[in-house]
Amino acid sequence: MSKEAVDSATLDAPRTDAIQAPADAGDAGYSKDLKARHVNMIAIGGAIGTGLFLGAGGRLHSAGPALALAYLVCGIFAFFVVRALGEMVLYRPSSGSFVSYAREFLGEKGAFFAGWMYFLNWSTTCIADITAIALYTHYWSFFTDIPQWVLALIALAIVLAVNLVSVKYFGEMEFWFSIIKVAALSAFMIIGIWLLASQHKVGGETPGLNMITDHGGLMPNGLMPVVIVMQGVVFAYASLELVGVAAGETAEPHKIVPRAVNSIMWRVGLFYVGSVVLLALLLPGVMYTADQSPFVTVLSKIGVPAAGDVMNFVVLTAAMSSLNSGLYSTGRILRSMAMSGSAPKFTAKMNRNQVPYGGILLTASLGVVGVGLNKVVPGKAFEIVLNVASLGIIGTWITIMVCHLAFVRSAKRGEITRPKFQLPFSGVTEYVTIAFLLAVLGLMWKDAEVGRKTLFLIPVVGLALVAGWYGVRRRVGREAQGLTLPKDQ
Question: What is the CATH classification number for the domain harbouring 36?
């Protein structure tokens, strides 16, 4: 990339009402092929995933109907995070998203932490996704003889190829994945409402409030199981922040992003809270299990043919969607970091289709490690990486809120102008959200089987980040003094 191209990117950077926002060198060279329908469906896809389609079963069993409240509470804080990010997006759209904003308002150390925590989240999530895809594919007898690691490798290869072709293909793939998920949930909710209205028996039980009142109430196992599931519920909302990354490749982010962000709240209420309430009214919580989608449990109880096949396909789609999003977002984040020297130089490289293939390939290489895990420990691969991913997403969300606090302070000093699309009750909302996320981390200690092991990883991750920063800080300093871009750019 020439100096003229960088200058052009600076001139084209969106302005606030009074002050021009600085450009991020990592934003230059991208196409603007994502349309409004793509971004809206990316927002939906981020709000609906395997955390609902599969994870809700085990959580209903342990937490009971109060799981709906857990989804609502976590959904509200997830909305605050995305709303804060959305405000910064309107100030300056960037494919580097919160990493770019952390660089501007927190400095290079903040950007380094934000970027690598996000990479930790998505690289491990990608491993979890390909593992899940392999497990779901084994549901059909046609695939049972194919080794789990082979199916994981095939899934990774397909999604990697789509991401490397162009952002338009990524957008189309995510659009149709989201359509499938929304259609499946809508169909289930229509069936569930009909079952309630007609008092049609489900597994010999008459649905209604009696499914809650006659089986231990909202919290049949007490408060603690509800608290413990918070970790998994927060992770279920991971990838909502994709809206901020996608904004850098849209032609009209100032029109598209506010609609996409604001719609997240009613989607959370309708799809997450609404579907969990329906599930609780249709069957007692003890009837649901961790190894089966709760939607399959209900549909099989009323004798819907091929319910398991249909829902398994939907869950498979959700996992493919997550893998697709992970490769897309980390490619853009790593390129923004590489431009400042805090990520390997090759992750800044783009192909002729304006795709940052270096960062995508780095994330995919971690996926290959996941393929190896599926070969060596196929029964434990999913659990191993999911714990690490939860630390990554909580770290990322906290960084976004800290960054927004610095963003607001900068506006109060008159250095920038805030857009009209703002985080409600700013100055308080950030601190409350950060406190909530830290509380979720602390409460993991109560879960001796999984959560406590996750907390033990925090010092390891912290030491790795410190060592990494000292390894790149001189290069970051050189890049800050004079913009040095890869030769092939």
Answer: 1.20.1740.10
pTM of the entire structure?
Answer: 0.84
Residue 4 lies in a domain: no
Residue 293: give the domain boundaries.
Answer: 28-481
Which of 443, 395, 382 minimizes the C-alpha distance to 55?
Answer: 382
Q: How far apart are CA 437 and CA 217, in angstroms?
A: 27
* Listed residue (34, 5, 286, 13) closest to 167, CA to CA: 34
Q: How many domains does the chain have?
A: 1
In a domain, 489, yes or no: no
**Rounded Cα–Cα distance for residues 432 and 424 (Å):** 12
Domain membership of residue 486 (yes or no) is no
Query: 250 - beta bridge partners?
Result: 34
In this structure, is residue 487 part of a structural domain? no
- Structural element, H or E, at residue 237: none
| Chain segment 456-471, per-residue pLDDT in tens | 888 988 999 999 999 8
295 contacts 311 by C-beta, under 8 angstroms: yes
User: Look-up: residue for tokens 């991913």?
Assistant: 389
CA–CA dist 385, 292 (Å, integer)? 20
- For the cut 80, the answer to whether the pLDDT of residue 195 exceeds it is yes
Give CA angle at 340 (238, 438), nearest 5°: 35
